[in-house]
Amino acid sequence: MAAPPEKTLKDLSGKWVMNKSLSDDVDKMLQMQGIGWFMRRLISLATVTLTITQYTTDDSLTHIDIYQVASPGGISSQENRILDWTYRDHDDKVFGQVKGKSRWVKLAGIDDHEFLKEGYDDLEGEHVQGYVESKNGGWTVDQVSPFWVC
Question: Can you spell out the DSSP letters for 45-90?
Answer without folding.
Answer: HSEEEEEEEEEE-TTS-EEEEEEEEEETTTEEEEEEEESS---EEE
